[in-house]
Design brief:
This protein has about 110 residues and is mainly alpha-helical. It contains six helices and no strands. Helix 3 (about 45-55) packs antiparallel against helix 4 and helix 4 runs parallel beside helix 6 (about 95-110). The longest helix is centred in the first third of the chain and has 18 residues, at about 25-40. The chain is globular.
Amino acid sequence: AAGDLAGAVEGWEKVVDHHPRDEAAKSELARVRVALRSRQGADATDPADRADALFAAGDHAGAFDILLQLIADTQGEERDAARVRLIDLFRVAGNAPEVRAARQKLSALLLV
């Protein structure tokens, strides 16, 4: 409520750490992360930032595709960061058809 999104992320991370099965807390954490990234601005050369911009514009499938490609093309911390960002977007988008399709693609990528 005070507009301290970074503090809100920290707070929700603590809640999730203490209650790892709390799906509502995970969803709130995802919403705050997306809001914080949106407030911080985007780097047009960064695919993950482009995905956030597409998501904010309502092109969820386009955002998912960019992050899925980033996961396919990277390794290590960069791949994990893209996966976490994608999961955040899934949680914010809810149970839409494009989320289900992207989840299937993510599963296939992670099994390879």
